[in-house]
Queue: 2 jobs
Job 1
Amino acid sequence: MNSKSEKNIKFKIQRFNPEKDKQYISTYTVPVRVGTTILDILLYVKDNLDGTLTFRHQCRMGQCGSCGVILNGKPMLACYTQVLHLGVDTIKIEPLTNLPVIKDLVVNFDSFFKKHAKIEPILIKAEDTFKKITEFIQIPSDLKKYWDKAICIKCSLCNASCPAEIDPKFLGPSSLTANYRFILDTRDDGNNKRLKNSSESIWLCTSCNSCTINCPKEIDCSTALTEQRSLIIEDGILFPKTVKEALDSAFKYYNPIRMPSRKRKDWSINLNIKDLSIVKETRVLYFVGCLSSYDDRNKEIAKCITKIFRKMEVDFATLGNDEWCCGDHILRLGEKGLFEMLAEHNVSMFKKYTFESIVTTSPHCYYTFVNDKPYTDLEMKVKHYSQFIAEALKKGKLKLNREIKKKVTYHDPCFLGKRSNIYDEPREILRAVPGLEFIEMERSRENSFCCGGGGGRVWTEEADPEKRPSVNRVREAIKLGVKIIATACPFCITTLEDAIKTIDCEDLIKVMDIAEIIAESIEYL
Ligand code: SF4
Ligand code: SF4
Ligand code: FES
């Protein structure tokens, strides 16, 4: 390790004095060397600058799970994070979220461990089995099934980033993944009990992927929860009526919203949009998606996208009534068979016609086309419409004429951002709009807070308003003083608009899709 100090970094540490019930921020500028960790900084401050600073640590090697903090909005282990790797000159250090703060950076883990206790993190077997002196044999391939989930250090970084955690009923990504680890363990006989346990709250997960992204041990909690849902559905264990209704509808009508498939293309009546069943060939296949086909509010977004296509003179067509739900929400809800049915139909349509690329309205359609079989077998060129528009703006194929003099923030849809790494294009589009003042939310990009609509939750929302992620997100935007929350996903539009109505703040703020903003900005005065 280089002994020379490399640079001075400013640390803003969130403090809490429980005796005075006072929150404040302490700022220190500390010389940092190559290899200096956040924990080194906290120890330096305590030893040299302020002996009252309180934080937790033990192993100093990423094993005990006690030193989790939030660094510039991202949950991370203090001992495992090198300061210079963060690549910034100012670092805000806060206590982990979703747990009560005891003092400064020390949080109370009681509720976290109570949730772990609820899933019974020990082998469940008949009592007699334990009385015999015998080994529970397990072959390496059986161990391999759950080994990657058994290395959890109970640091709660996943829970700190989880939007569903605002509802205390939710068992949380860490406990639910541990539950799945025991389900996969061939020595455990408690599957039925475990699945019943998790089925009470697992539907609150939005598949946002934050838990997976933030786990220092690279445990894929998000997939573990989806796989667990699959088992719940396969085993016919009781699950919420709303989930059942969405799945039944997707089976019967090929969309989760109980709308007849013969009405799917009605949104485009009078728009003279080409139907691939007639033209057979096009440059861009526009995949509209369920909400933009059927939901009145979201139909407007599909109309704006087609208006932008026309302005750019793009040759495009849709599958008309032959388009079925892409199946993303169905797959995340765990209904793999139904997903396959929907996907195989769409794949048969994609094979039937000639096109260069697919452009989707929804990040969910985009994500499943790019990541899930059988779609991936086709190796199609897929773009979310925000990528398509950003590219057109860069190449000068689209000009924005009309000023929109508004303060606008951007809410990252999880399936576009955290799952697909598309963060820049929507921002480039907004920054290109004349007159528009773009203000970043505090929780943005990979630290963005989910709207609560993904993973099928948009169809199944039953939580009280205060326990809905969307309400939390709208409040965050209002604090910024913006007039518009821009986003790029029909599900975010739905959940955020519902939240605005729920908390009765329609006069303060509104939600617009980026496509609507662009459509407004290409209009001539
Ligand atoms: S995917 Fe998102 S909502 Fe689901 S458990 Fe993980 S962080 Fe929570
Ligand atoms: S799953 Fe990962 S992030 Fe969550 S508690 Fe375990 S080690 Fe920490
Ligand atoms: S001090 Fe043990 S994980 Fe950081």
Note: Residues 57-60, 62-67, 77, 79 surround FE2/S2 (inorganic) cluster (ligand 3) (CB under 6 Å).
Job 2
Amino acid sequence: MIRRAAIAATLLFLLSTASVSAAASVTVQTVNTSGYNPSIALISLASTVSWQNQSVSTNHTTTSDLAGLWDLTLNHGTTTTDLAFNNAGSFAYHCKIHGNMRGTVQVKMAASPTSATLGTQFVIVWAAAAAPTGYVFDVQRKRPNKPFKAWMTGVQTLQTTFTPARKGTFQFKARLRKVGGLSTGYSPNLAITVT
Ligand SMILES: [Cu+2]
């Protein structure tokens, strides 16, 4: 799910498939042991979270709550550690040294276009790179005036095409799930509008 220094390649892939641009990276600072600032980092698919440890003497970690996704030491002395997130979802993490330090990385889905007339084919994207080995994606869809329902469950594809059969706002959200195990939270909702 996570790659260091592979952002350019990922972006090229994303642009070529869905014409979606990623937002700039978000910087999360640790000044002392009180927590991560901001505690919620909202990023576009394939964007980067840059953790900056501003402490003179205290090390921290950024460690995914879902064991094994990532576990990095943030060394003291204003060092920076970058991670790119290539799967949509809500990724809770913590510091292994200071248990009260908790944060979340929210990775948005993408669509192209995001608004179009009836009959248009949309590309709905929940990943810019394959899920880690042993993981799959769950994607839910919300039709106009209906609740969210399972749409793609346990898939390994990164995106799909979707041609809505009616006008209105459709929404989507995705998560990463370990086969037979725990999952991340769902991503923020992605909305497309059919006029
Ligand atoms: Cu810490």
Note: Residues 4-22 have pLDDT under 50 and may be disordered.
